[in-house]
Amino acid sequence: MGRLFDFMLPDNKSPLTADSTDGLFNFITEVSLIMLIGITIAMIYFAYKYKRKSEDDKTPVITHNNTLEITWSVVPLILVMIVFGWGYSGWLNLRAVPNDAYEIHATGYKWNWNFNYENGAQTLNELHVPAGRPIKVVMQSRDVLHSFFIPDYRVKHDVVPGRYTYVWFQAEETGESIIFCTEYCGTSHSDMLAKVIVHEPDEFEEWLELNGGGLQGSPVEIGEQLVQLQGCQTCHSMDGTQMIGPSFKGIWGREAVMSDGSTIVVDENYIRESILYPGEKVVDGYDNVMTPYEGRLSDDEITSIIEYLKTIE
Ligand SMILES: [Cu+2]
Fold first, then answer.
1. How many Å apart are CA 213 and CA 122, to the nearest integer?
2. pLDDT, average across residues 117-146
3. I want to staple 291 with a disulfide (CB 3.0 to 4.6 A). Which of 57, 109, 152, 211 is the partner?
4. Is 54 part of any domain?
């Protein structure tokens, strides 16, 4: 349904969660516009009608006017109560996840989103979902406050370290929508983007099947997949380009200078420590912004990553 202010909103791709928000947004904007026009006209008219007409033109003493005062109190009260009731019911709807919702876990950290599915499938910065089915995204943060926002679905919620939060939505059609982090979280906050990819239900099942069951291959191959899935390449390049962190190119065996001036030859133990507790030894010229992978990667996974890093020359 076309409304005057629809152009201000992105496409509504999840009516079950977006309709109420859009309705209320339009109502508030329309009421504000009507009031703006009414007040402006009244102001201009009064300025003209009650302007000082002669030297001895004096304002009469008016103590009060019951009708006027009650009107300008009750009308806004009614408007505000409508906004409250509408907003409250919309909020309840956003909090009440349908029973048959499909659950996906999301983890936010500087500066990526990881998604984990029921069968072990994992994705980085891509949330795959089936169309026409309610989806519940259960979220957690590994470091600081982030916020998960999908404008097309009108859902947004803080992602808080040490606590689970959630959003739900139901995308009706296949396609893509953007996910923003909307809580300032450091240097690359504005690059903390991801997207939702909505599949036909059977296509989604196929995708899930194909990506489930854990990582396959030799340690080097598994290490390469882990580096991609864990978002290391957001900060570390493979080709020598300096990004937020040092490049992985030629990392094995090189002499790294630490911020305290000491030098270290990159070996297994140093890489392991750098992944689990990056703050222990900070490379000179870089900020201590890498989120610790402690509790996130197993010993075997770290070994695979080390084997892979050895191969980047
Ligand atoms: Cu963030």
1. 10
2. 95
3. 109
4. no
Task: For residues 19 and 76, give the distance between their C-alpha atoms in angstroms, rounded to a whole number.
Answer: 24
Asked, for residue 49, whether it belongs to a domain, the answer is no
Q: How far is the CA of 192 from the centre of ligand 1 (A)?
A: 6
Verdict on whether the full-model pTM lies above 0.70: yes
Assign 2 a pLDDT band (cuts: 50, 70, 90).
low
- Tell how far the Cα of 263 is from the centroid of ligand 1, in angstroms: 33
Q: How far is the CA of 270 from the centre of ligand 1 (A)?
A: 28
pLDDT of 245 higher than 70: yes
- Cα(182) to centroid of ligand 1, in Å? 7
Instruction: Give whole-number Cα distances, 306 to 121, 149, 303, in Å.
Output: 22, 35, 5
> For residue 292, how far is its CA from the centre of ligand 1 (angstroms)?
16
Last residue within a domain, chosen from 211, 231, 263? 211
How many angstroms is it from 196 CA to the middle of ligand 1? 17
Structural domain count of the chain: 3
Q: Report the pLDDT value the prediction gives residue 5, as an integer from 0 to 100.
A: 81
Residues 71-87 pLDDT 10s: 999 999 999 999 999 99
Return d(Cα 8, Cα 15) in angstroms, integer: 17
Instruction: Identify the burial level of 114 via C-beta atoms within 10 angstroms of its C-beta, where 0-12 means exposed, 13-18 middle and 19 or more buried.
Output: buried
Same domain, 118 and 183: yes
Average pLDDT taken over every residue of the chain: 94
Task: Note whether residue 158 is domain-resident.
Answer: yes
- Name the DSSP class of 97: -
Query: Where is the domain boundary, 211, 246, 275?
Result: 211
Domain containing residue 193 = 102-211
> What is the mean predicted confidence (pLDDT) over 44-66?
90
Gap from CA of 212 to ligand 1 centroid (Å): 27
